[in-house]
Amino acid sequence: MESTAFVFRPRGSYILAMATRINRRAPRLQKLISAAVPQGFTPFVARRNDLDDIEEFSHEVFADNPTERKYIRHLLSDGHAVIFGLKKGEEIAACCTLEMNVRQGRIYIVEIAVHANHRGRGLGQWTMKRIEALANSYDYRRITSHVTPGNRMSLSLHRRFGMRPQRLVRRYFHDGHDAYYMQMDIQAAS
After folding, report:
1. What are all long-range contacts of 32-37, with beta carbons under 8 Å and residues at least 24 apart?
2. What end-to-end distance do the CA atoms of the chain give, in Å?
3. Is the pLDDT of residue 25 over 50?
4. What is the pLDDT of residue 50?
5. What integer pLDDT is reported at residue 188 of this predicted model?
6. pLDDT digits (tens, 9 = 90+) for 95-150
7. What's residue 79's pLDDT?
8. Backbone angles phi, psi at 165, to 5 degrees
9. Nearby residues of 140 by Cβ (< 8 Å), 6 or more positions away
10. Are 141 and 106 in contact (CB under 8 A)?
């Protein structure tokens, strides 16, 4: 049975590409996430058979507020998202879920995380650089996210890459926590 890779294509049109017959757009995505991979890690773009691993990863790193399988499946099957990250062997070490909103010209970071066993190795920085490269490559104008004010590591990572809090959203998360709405405008590549 062939596995299916979910691949983003610009201008609001989305496709499914078979892993054994990669669509001509897929090499572009693979090239973007394969740049400067930290030694010992392998980049991946999520496939349907990765759902269990992604859900498990989310529950491990966001024990109080994980992204549920149903929502992950929705993002992938509706074709407006990409999930990518790094693996160490079979274990997901870092992962991010992005919503690609063509009409608004923005990439929304649904979730970005590095497993506790792999922190301090630059994986969060690698992931943010890949997000910025995707935005530049596909002509998005901004990157946005919501971050809990108490998540100092995530706030620091977002700020290092130029994302700034725009406003505090009270009780944004379903568990009642507040969130900063973070945003970074992308400069057009010359």
Report:
1. 32/130, 32/133, 32/134, 32/137, 33/84, 33/130, 35/129, 35/130, 35/133, 36/126, 36/129, 37/86, 37/126
2. 43
3. no
4. 84
5. 58
6. 999 988 888 999 999 999 999 999 999 999 999 999 999 999 888 999 999 999 99
7. 64
8. -65, 130
9. 100, 105, 106, 107, 134, 186
10. yes
How do 142-147 and 106-114 pair as beta strands?
A: parallel
Q: Are 129 and 36 in contact (CB under 8 A)?
A: yes
Is-contact 162 182, C-beta < 8 A?
no
| Rounded CA separation 129/109 (Å) | 13
Give the chain's mean pLDDT.
82
Distance in angstroms (rounded) separating the CA atoms of residues 54 and 32: 21
> Phi, psi (5° rounding) for residue 53?
-65, -40
Q: Is 38 helix (H, G, I), strand (E, B) or coil?
A: coil
Q: Is pTM beyond 0.85 here?
A: no
Domain layout of the chain by residue ranges: 4-185
Residue entry with tokens 């790193």:
61
The CATH architecture annotation of domain 4-185 reads: 3-Layer(aba) Sandwich (3.40)
pLDDT of residue 189: 52
Task: Tell whether the torsion through CA atoms of 141, 147, 153 and 155 is positive or negative.
Answer: positive
Q: What is the DSSP letter of 122?
A: S
Supply the DSSP symbol for 49.
Answer: G
Identify which has the larger pLDDT, 151 or 5: 151
Q: Pairing mode, if any, of strands 81-88 and 42-45? A: antiparallel
